[in-house]
Amino acid sequence: MAILVTGGAGYIGSQICVDLLALNKDVVIVDDLSNSTLEVVENIELISGKKVHFFQVDLKNKIELDLVFRTFRFSEVIHLAGVKSVNDSIQNPLEYYSQNILGTIILLDCMKKNNVKKIIFSSSATVYGVPEKIPIAESAKTEPINPYGLTKLAIEQLLNALANANKDLSIVILRYFNPIGAHESGLIGEKPLSKPNNLMPFITQVAMKEREYLNVFGDDYDTKDGTGVRDYIHIADLSSGHIMALNYLDDFKGCETFNLGSGTGFSVLEIINAFQRVNGIHLNYRVVEKRKGDVAVCIADIAKAALLLNWRPNKTIEDMCKDSWKIQQMQSVALAKEEGIIIEKRKYELWIPQ
Ligand SMILES: NC(=O)c1ccc[n+]([C@@H]2O[C@H](COP(=O)([O-])OP(=O)(O)OC[C@H]3O[C@@H](n4cnc5c(N)ncnc54)[C@H](O)[C@@H]3O)[C@@H](O)[C@H]2O)c1
Prior knowledge:
Layout: E1 2-6, H1 11-22, E2 26-30, H2 38-48, E3 53-55, H3 62-71, E4 74-79, H4 86-91, H5 93-113, E5 118-124, H6 147-165, E6 170-176, E7 178-180, H7 199-207, E8 214-217, E9 229-230, E10 232-234, H8 235-249, E11 254-260, E12 266-267, H9 268-279, E13 285-288, E14 297-298, H10 303-309, H11 317-339
Parallel strand pairs: 1-2, 1-4, 2-3, 4-5, 5-6, 6-11, 7-10, 8-13, 9-14
Antiparallel strand pairs: 9-12
The structure holds nicotinamide-adenine-dinucleotide.
């Protein structure tokens, strides 16, 4: 039996695929490459020394998706495919509802028709909206304040309703906090095709001098240094949360929700300082107006995942800063080679699969 990973060529999905292949799982990726490239699939195979089955299919294409389901027998689905920018979702709510909700409905329909009963769904801390209490437990109220968060909550509600209606289903919902870092090889990581949404890609672009300044949105929040505090989680820890969730699904029926974060908060200035310290690089930044809808502090309570999934994050903020910088450098080296630019000053270590 194989595992279907939707969005497996993306930032988080590619790391999960590598980890699944390391466990000798048969992995099938469905991804329309709207925010990723085929090179990622090649790099997943390079890192793991194993083959994946890849299908460039849009989840909304019912006929093609059904063909994939009829070609393989899936034990579980890990569903990551979707669009994820809070700002874009405010500009284009129709696209967000269509990509995320319609795509998921078609996927769930294919699962039903093909008798696949286990799914892990990528949700987001965005479903909490403005938290009333820190750290945020899974039982906290869910009141998203943007269309992206609303699509995630709608899918969560649908999954809960399905589990109520069919006692044979096994569903885990994972609410990610702020994933950063990259695979230790520097071969896969966050490579957004469009403008990045998260702090770390902006930091690495400033470090590469592709951007003049990093904008720090507000420095008068009620936090240790006035800048926003977030719960950053290394991509490797996030991925291991999925592996533990797969184990949990082995003998669980119903629908259970877990936070995946580090359980620790770092301010924007702390991240900037850690990045400078670990990588020996100076970052230009400037404080600008707060963004509408940003909250002061967002930190996960991860006790439930520790207890039921037996999962704990291991990586440090230094690992996150080091690995994020490494992939940015590797990308630049690859790009420079392609363009025939000789670069002598940017150093990177070649990672050799063991
Ligand atoms: N990265 C984060 O900060 C974060 C935080 C919380 C939740 N999430 C969720 O995790 C999931 C993965 O996020 P990511 O950071 O890896 O994003 P990503 O954009 O790197 O990966 C998503 C992948 O899905 C593919 N895709 C998008 N729409 C598709 C469709 N209709 N059919 C098939 N493939 C499609 C894209 O090409 C991309 O490869 C998303 O659902 C996202 O909402 C991400």
